[in-house]
Amino acid sequence: MTFDNILKNIRRYTTLSPQEEAAFCALLTIKKIKRKEFLVREGDICMYEYYVNKGCLRNYFIDKKGLEHNLYFAIEDWWISDLYSRTRMAPTFCNIVALEDCELVEINHHALEKFMEEAPALERFFRLSYEHALVNQHLRNLEMLHMSGEERYISFMEKYPKMANRIPQKHIATFLGLTPQFFNLIHAKVTRGR
């Protein structure tokens, strides 16, 4: 079994020695889930970090009114987990579900923490990855506060063109903080203008 894709992902930020790469790969397992299958359910304790080899997933929560709110999506070459649950070992408030059949590389949180003590370069990789994710979340928050619904939609389409055709529009709508009806109006307007 080869883990070439995940190693290429890590090499974007840091370099592991051949021995460290081999030891890291020994901690990894492949997990396959079908479309609509849950990776993590609200109330679970998330024990793994996941790298997406193939497929598309969404992370969402359900509010007190029973409405779903999409927090983020993950496609090939992205990572997904519930950071709160995984680092605090606390029940998650969110769900992670497959939008397509998926092949994931999983690593146990405790094994990863232990390995990072032995391989500081991997800790650097995750620090830089989390910094990147935090900056993107900050920018998303600013967009939600300062952009119109139409501007948020256009920004999403420009930033994530590979996702736009893979994610149902109702999920994109809640990710952008829009009702499905308003999203449909914006989508029609933008599509006509192109």
From TrEMBL:
Record organism: Chitinophaga agrisoli
Superkingdom of this protein's organism: Bacteria
InterPro entries named in the record: cNMP-bd_dom, cNMP-bd_dom_sf, RmlC-like_jellyroll
Lineage: Bacteria, Pseudomonadati, Bacteroidota, Chitinophagia, Chitinophagales
Cyclic nucleotide-binding domain ranges (all copies): 31-118
Protein's UniProt name: Crp/Fnr family transcriptional regulator
CDD domains: CAP_ED (cd00038)
